[in-house]
Each structure stands twice: as C-alpha cells, then as structure tokens.
Predict the structure of TF-B3 domain-containing protein.
Amino acid sequence: MPTHFSTVIVSHTLQDKKLSIPKEFVKKLGDELSDFATIIVPDGRVWRMGVSKDVGKNFFHHGWQDFVENHSISVGHFLLFRYDKNSTFHALIFDTSTFEISYPKNFIERGVANLGSSSSKHELELPRTKCKMEEHMEVNANTAHNGEDEHPTRMT
C-alpha cells in the first residue's frame, strides 16, 4: 500500500478550492479512504476535511480552503502527504524556495470548524489543540471568524 503522495500547488487548485488526490494512490487504498480525512501538520494541529468524488477523481474539498488560507499556501508550494491509516494523513508544506514553512509558534490553541450550514457545534479536545466541530466537515484551526469564542460542548 502506498504511504506518500506529493503535489505542487497550481492555480486551478486554488481557484477550484479543492486538492486532487492522485488516482493511483486512491486506487491502492481501496475502500480505506472514507468521506472524511484527517490531516495533521507538524505543529500538532488537526484538520478534518471532506473527501469528495467528481468524475472518478477524489479531492480534499470541504475544509481545504481554510487549510490553504491558514498556511498561506500559494502557487508553487509543494505539499507532501504521508498516509497512516483510517483516512489520516500527515502533511509537510514547503514554500517556493523549497523550505518547509514556519508554523506559528504563538498559535492560540483553538480552532474553528465551519462544517456546513448546521449550527450544532461541538468541541473536540486533541492532544495539542482544540477544534470546534459542526455537523459536516471543514476545520479552520484559527480563532472564530469574528475573533470571539463560541460556547462549545465537550465531546467524549
């Protein structure tokens, strides 16, 4: 089973607000890749994203745009994904100078998930971070869009 895939960000990836997962990689995973994926970056933040299918291709979709914006990903960035299991990936992000990006050291340990239009919110406590989760699936590991905390309920 493959464990890694990489991609160079091109303009249509940013315009389409989704990232194609290589077809051969998905094919070798078989049914193991679910409709949701977890992406972990080196600073410990955890991102939940939707995996959508369109014309025989699989994409990181819902949640991808927040991930891109939070990490200031632009055309020419190189991303390396390592697959663990259970639709969990570890990602390394390299800028156009081929250096791994600097992840924020003073990161506020609070994330916001914009998971569709549902107003049901939950907080998920992770080893090094917290993310508010809604019903469907986008995760933004920054503060709430308006800068204010919402009233989360702890998930167990």
Observations:
- Residues 4 and 56 are 20 Å apart (CA to CA).
- The two ends are 32 Å apart (CA to CA).
